[in-house]
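Inverse folding, one chain.
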């Protein structure tokens, strides 16, 4: 493990419950504190000593975003497989460097967008693939909650450029949309800082064009009290109250699916007529711990028994879209992403 902060500690808890992994070392700049919290573990202040002395087969990288590329490249050059916390890196330039080194070394990689491992997400993808609502026409989505004042006091950088909900929160939603609905090929956006008055946005709205022809709208705010966030709807984090509310509506030619409740709205006899009543149907999906499921998948990826659900190349595409939305909100122009995808792949 490289990085034993908030998300790193969550991974450590899950590893302790997982019989398929043996923890051989932790690297963190606060080595003494981590050693006290993790009795019995080998703790290093320098991640390079961890790689050299503990010689792990795989590493989970949960360091600050700006260190992801450096840590990942060092692991790749040492022939070590990586599970890299999201976002894959902090810039497209560093992401490209990481991709090149991972490819050169032939190591296996997985980016930790954990929502891909939810059973509800898999169920949504299956329902869409079955044509339950026909061709997808559009998506309407919301992520809106009110972050408390202490959130900004603890980390003052969150009130500065790069600390707003676009780069901190929207990247999770972008990755979900790419995975569940389809690749995003163009974006437009606008943003406002009127509620908090910080140098960074507190509210934003984005228009999204998908490769399959569908269009989407996304409303984002960290200064509005609502039950509509993925965290509240899925109940995936104890920090967020479980609202059981859907923050997504995926609309198709034959009906609509809400997510994460998976309620389905269609007309009897497959009608497509605005004068006919629309009926609700429940779809069920179990619930699992996505972090445990992610570790199961990473194990299989390491062993060569499964193809990575999200190698670093794919994680970089989610970063690319999110950065483009931030850029569009500043420039006020539509941004076509296809040339940027091509440049990232070379």
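Residues assigned per position:
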């Amino acid at each position: 493990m490289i990085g034993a902060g908030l998300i790193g500690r969550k991974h450590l808890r899950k590893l302790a419950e997982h019989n398929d992994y043996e923890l051989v070392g932790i690297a963190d700049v606060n080595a003494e504190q981590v050693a006290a919290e993790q009795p019995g573990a080998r703790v290093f202040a320098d991640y390079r000593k961890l790689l050299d002395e503990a010689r792990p087969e795989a590493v989970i990288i949960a360091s600050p975003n700006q260190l992801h590329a450096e840590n990942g490249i060092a692991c790749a050059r040492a022939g070590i497989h990586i599970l890299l916390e999201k976002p894959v890196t902090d810039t497209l330039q560093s992401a490209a460097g990481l991709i090149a080194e991972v490819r050169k070394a032939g190591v296996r990689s997985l980016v930790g967008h954990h929502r891909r491992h939810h059973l509800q997400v898999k169920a949504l993808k299956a329902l869409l693939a079955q044509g339950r609502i026909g061709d997808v026409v559009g998506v309407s989505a919301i992520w809106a909650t009110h972050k408390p004042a202490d959130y900004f006091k603890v980390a003052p950088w969150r009130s500065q450029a790069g600390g707003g909900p676009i780069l901190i929160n929207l990247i999770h939603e972008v990755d979900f949309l790419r995975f569940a609905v389809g690749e995003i090929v163009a974006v437009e956006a606008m943003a406002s800082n009127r509620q908090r008055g910080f140098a960074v946005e507190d509210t934003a709205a984005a228009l999204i064009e998908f490769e399959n022809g569908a269009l989407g709208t996304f409303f984002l705010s960290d200064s509005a009290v609502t039950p509509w966030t993925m965290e509240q709807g899925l109940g995936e984090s104890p920090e967020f109250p479980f609202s059981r509310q859907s923050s997504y509506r995926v609309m198709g030619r034959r009906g609509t699916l809400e997510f994460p409740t998976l309620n389905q709205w269609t007309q009897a006899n497959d009608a497509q007529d605005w004068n006919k009543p629309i009926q609700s149907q429940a779809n069920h999906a179990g619930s699992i711990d996505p972090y445990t499921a992610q570790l199961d998948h990473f194990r299989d990826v390491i062993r060569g028994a499964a193809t990575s659900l999200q190698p670093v190349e794919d994680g970089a595409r989610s970063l690319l879209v999110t950065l483009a939305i931030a850029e569009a909100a500043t420039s006020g122009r539509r941004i076509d992403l296809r040339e940027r995808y091509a440049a990232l792949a070379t």
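Residues 312-331 form the longest helix (20 residues). The chain has a mean pLDDT of 96.
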